[in-house]
Amino acid sequence: MQRIPAILVLALFLPAAFLATLPAHAASCAWSAKMEEDEGGSVLMASVCGGPEGDASLMLACFDRPVLSYDLGGAGGEIEPGTRGSFTFKAGGKSVTKKLVLEAMYNYFTTDLSGPSDPLLALLRGKGEVTISADKYGAASFPLTGSSAAIGKVLAECDKGSGEA
Question: Which of 7, 56, 61, 68 has its CA 20 to 30 A from that of 39?
Answer without folding.
Answer: 56
